[in-house]
Amino acid sequence: MASSGKMEGPSAPALRRDPYEVLSVSRDSSDQEIKSAYRKLALKYHPDKNASNPEASELFKEVAYSYSILSDPEKRRQYDTAGFEALENEGMDMEIDLSNLGTVNTMFAALFSKLGVPIKTTVSPTVLEEAMNGTVTVRPLPVGTSAMGKVEKQSAHFFGVTISEEQAHSGIVVRATSVAQSKFKLLFFEQEINGGYGLALQEDSQKTGKVTSAGMYFLHFQVYRMDSTVNALAMAKDPEAAFFKRLEGLQPCEVSTLKPGTHIFAVYGDNFFKPASYTIEAMCAKSYEDTTERLKEIEAKILEKRNDLRQFETEYRKALAQFQEATARYTQEKEVKVGVVRHLF
User: Fold this and answer.
1) J domain: which residues (predicted)?
2) Architecture of domain 125-297
3) How many Cα neighbours within 13 Å face the side chain of 67?
4) Domain boundaries in the chain?
C-alpha cells in the first residue's frame, strides 16, 4: 500500500506515502483519532509558522492530502481495498481558505454547500497569526456561565476559561451552539513560549436538530455523538443492509484533559458571507453527575445493541448465502430433471 510515485494535480504532494504512515495512526483508528492527528501535524507544518522552511510546505501538503483520503469514509474504504490505484480517477478534496477566495468562487462554494456538498475550510492565517502574536482580545468565560455573540466571517472571538483543580479533576465541557444554524468552528489554543496562542484543537459545527453545534470534552471518560452522515453513507453503499447500519454513526468524541489554570477557546465565523451568531458555554461535569452516569449507561446499551446488530448481520448474510446456494442448486436440479424427461419422451 505504501508505494511511492509521482502524483497528478497541483494540490498533490510530490511523492505519495501511506496516509496512515503520514498521520502516524493505525488502520483501525477512529475518525476522531485521525482528525486529532491531522490537526496537530497541520499546525506543526503550517506555512505561516514555517516561512523560512520550504520543506514544511511540502509536509503540510502531504498531511492535508492524507487527511483528505482518511477523513472521507468512501475514499478510505477504496484506499484500504486497492491502495492509491483506486483513487487515481477520484478528485481529491482539499481544505480551502475562504479569505483567499474571490467573490465569484465564494458564491460557487456557498451554492455547493447549500446543495449538500461538503466544503472543508481552514482557519484564516490572519486569525492564526494574531493568536500566535498574542494580539487578540480574550474575554473571560467563567465555568457555569454562557456568552452570546455574533462573529464576522473568517474572524474569531476569543474566550478565557479559568478552571480550579477540583474542576479539572471533575472534567470540563465547552460547547457552542447557533439557533440561526450558522456555520462556525470551535477552536482551542495552547499557550506558546512567546506568550501567544497556538491552535491545538478544532471542531466544525454540525447540524443537530434545529441548531448547529460543536463541543469539546475535557473529561476522564469517553463520550459519543451520533454522526448521521456516517449512517447515511453506510446505508447508501448497501441499501439492503440499511437496517443493520442504523447505529454505525455512533462515533467517539475527541476527549482530552485540562490542567488547572486559564485556557483559551474561540468561536470562528465560517459562514460564506454573513456573520455567525452563537452562544458559548463552559460547564463542569460535577454539576451533572447524575445525568453523566445516566448518559454512560445509555451509551453502553447503544454500543451493545450495535454489536448485536453487527453479529446479526453476519448471521443473516451467512443464512442468506446458504439459502441462495440451496435455491440455485434446486433450480439446477430441476432443469436437469426437465431435460431428462424431455429426452425420454
Assistant:
1) 18-83
2) Sandwich (2.60)
3) 22
4) 19-115, 125-297
